[in-house]
Input
Amino acid sequence: MDSTTGFYNYHDDDKGISFEIPVFKVERESDIFIRFKSEMMDAIVKAAERMLVHEYDSVPCFILIDSICKITRPTINNNLDKAEEYYKEQEMYEKCEDIIKLKQQL
Output
């Protein structure tokens, strides 16, 4: 099973930057939690990092069923909490520490 089904090159004309976001191909939205949970959590953390570095209020995170899923400033801490919880369950404590530092900077 592939970790993703590809990447989409997102270009922000206003800031003049481009970056790749993962594309998850699933039949139902709920399948993402079965097939791509780790990759989704990684995408959330990367989106938060982009939000911080490029001062976004909303940033594309990944594509699911042909829709760009974005994370916004009001929801970023909740999303990072979920990622931190996932990494704790996986005993990936270094990633947890990185998320804690990132939340403090946002």
Remarks:
- The longest helix spans residues 37-54.
